[in-house]
Amino acid sequence: MARVSPATVPPSAPGRDPHENAVLLLTTLGTLMVAVDSTIVILAIPTMARELNSPLSSIIWTVLIYLLVTAALTTQAGRLGDTVGRSRAYNSGFAIFTVGSALSGFAPTTTFLIAARAIQAIGGSLMFANAGALIAAVFPPERRGRAFGFFVFGYSLGAILGILLGGVITTEVGWRYIFFINIPIGLVAIALGLRTLPPTETHRVRFDLPGFLTFSGMLTLLCYGLIELSIFGVTIGNLAYLVVGAALLPAFLYTELRVTDPLLDLRQLKNRLLGFSLVAGLLQALGYLAVIFLLTMYLQGLRGLSPLNASLLLVPGYLLGALAGPVMGRQVDRLGARLLATLGILAMAGAVVAYSQLTLTTWLGWIPVISLIGGMGSGMFYPANSTAIMSQATPRTFGTISGLRATLANIGTLLSFVLAITIASTSVPRYVTYEVFLGTTNLVGGIGSEFLTGIRAAFYGSIVILLLAAALSWSRGKGTPRPVPAS
Which end of the chain lies in a sparser environment, N or C, as judged by fewer CB atoms within 10 Å? Predict the structure, then answer.
């Protein structure tokens, strides 16, 4: 039974919800904050490794642990928002992320830093899972596209700021301040959230402990095994992780189909629009984010650019994506999600086709030009696909569906890293591939040509994945919003 605060404006109420601006500001700020941190950390890894006296195989976990934890926890975080209230869960996420940032900045060792990054990831999971649910709860279906467009704006702008600030802060002030800058932003956001975010519906549901344990265990073991596989190759240990993780899948499915309040209501995936949209989001993240990793390795390892200069070449694409997101979101509200989402994926696939033709002597000015095509595609796809997914949720399941959407995107991001590293390293040792990615090693001569062959193979794999995502995006149909229950 739903419990609603008297101050809550039900989603079905006519007119404009007075909380729309507050929700839009806070969700955009949260997305920006997390995106800044992700790009800044990658640029600072070589400096952190040197100052903490850490091998690259250890310091890389400051990136990987964040991807792993968010992939494992985001669905549960969305379910928690349905239970305790989305505003409360979102504000808690901001607080945990800020605490994790402070701990990361004060980290005396690599192990401490990795643990602090895991705390950041817990906060990020709460924010990502409940941001979409807050938008769906406050914005009526005919205005959600523009709101989700600001997701793209926040993420793309955050990525740009991370690139621009990362090198300057790390060089001039110190790597610890890439985390300290989150503290004042987080404190302001928490204060604004407590004052302005609306109370939201909560629902009495039974906690699905068996589903939580089997899902978390399955995802953690599979992701950890794949990451270890990408770093060290095939060993008995990482094969065991993969086998046990895969074995938990039937147990999870059996559990979820038989409990009253499942952690993940698999029956909802029978809805063609919802199921195809979710899988399209997973494949888009898997196929396109791998390209960013591959470009980084190409520019740093084969063309000899610094991490900062390599990232600067991608700024035009991020900038166009940031500007296009809200604009395309309005078009989603007018034209529907199917066309714009599919065209967006095709634009990204076209950009990857162009990237696959790069050589060891290609004029680097083509990189920002191609990135504009991909940036426009991102600006079209994200608001359209998110709108399509949340159109199939009800107030009772806003958090669960939003969490599932974010979880699949996070899984795609994690696997994209593994895909890029694994395929590109077929011609050189994996540890060399990681050093190339971090900008600490350049490849010249014959080995450079071999490495380029591996990168091209990964590009071709990404093209196939994106075309499959486009096919699913179009095949899901136009769809219609689900009716919103009165309570």
Answer: N
Instruction: Provide the β-strand partners of residue 203.
Output: 2
256-262 long-range contacts (CB < 8 A, ≥24 apart) are 256/208, 256/211, 259/206, 259/208, 259/210, 259/211, 260/206, 261/205, 261/206, 261/207, 261/208, 262/208, 262/211
What's the predicted TM-score (pTM) here?
A: 0.78
User: Would the CA dihedral through 147, 152, 158, 164 be positive or negative?
Assistant: negative
In this structure, the number of other CB atoms found within 10 A of the CB of residue 122 comes to 20
What residues does each domain of the chain span? 17-199+263-475, 209-262
In this structure, are strands 2-3 and 202-203 parallel, antiparallel, or unpaired? antiparallel
Of 180-194, 361-375, 449-463, the range with the lowest mean pLDDT is 449-463
Give yes or no for residue 111 having a pLDDT over 90.
yes
Query: pLDDT for 362-398, tens place per residue?
Result: 999 999 999 999 999 988 998 888 888 888 777 777 7
Please measure the distance between the N-terminal and C-terminal CA atoms of the chain and give it in whole angstroms. Answer: 8
Class of domain 17-199+263-475: mainly alpha
